[in-house]
Design a protein that fits this description.
Blueprint (H helix, E strand, L loop, with lengths): L1 E12 L3 E4 L6 E6 L3 E5 L2 E5 L3 E5 L5 E5 L3 E10 L4 H6 L8 E2 L4 H14 L6 H24 L8 H13 L7 H8 L3 H12 L3 H19 L4 H7 L5 H12 L3 H11 L1
Antiparallel strand pairs: 1-8, 2-7, 3-6, 3-8, 4-5, 4-7, 6-9
Amino acid sequence: MEVIRIGSNGTHDKNFKVSRPNGYPFYLFLLIKTPALFEIDGKEIIAESSSAIIYDIDFPQHYSSYSNTYINDWIHFKSDAGTDYFNSLHIPLNTVIKIYDDTFVCELIRLMSNEYYSMNTKKEKTMTLLLQTMFVKLSEVISNCNSKKYINPHYAELVRLREEIYSNPGMQWRVDMLADRMNMCNTYLQKIYKKTFGISCVADVIECKVSYAKDLLSKTNMPIKEVANECGYKNEVHFMRQFKSIVGVTPSEYRKNSFSKG
């Protein structure tokens, strides 16, 4: 797989229109950031913002703005594996695909674009790996949609929130603190958090702290009281009880077992 050309946030006015009856002699990936009108096999299709399409080699390309502005990211690329690669990932070609969270695609395109215009000696290999990663993630999005898996419009924000929780296990996280970060009420946050990750935000905070505690217990000689403090517990006894209820053994027993295995 090889990136030929790439661009991000290409912006055009309401009169923007592309008509290539013979397509391109390579693949074209588009990430649509504003509503657009596509004509595919003689049918008009209105694409919502945060949609994508991969045009096959030599497939006719007809699309235009459907609002005052048209914005997209685009990649021209080659693939030695041909359509077999996309078939293996269950990604349909010449089809508009709705992406409910395009954060990962935008970030990967940004990274590829940076590499493309850089002087890095390994940029071709880096771009190929990033492009393949993007298609794997796109395949995952399609799979989730087809299985009617819960799709949260706040997914990207929730992932960032969860990342913050796990990056700061020593924080004394409360539901109201987390809800404030999302500008939501406590009840709504708890509802969508569990529906998205399969675990309540309170349970996830505890899981984060216990996971960090297990790491400290198995890799350091830090006293139990200090481990509890590092994990955001003010009360050592509360830490030990919560740890045992989840792990099945006390922190001391866990440390002993970890060192004996090592």
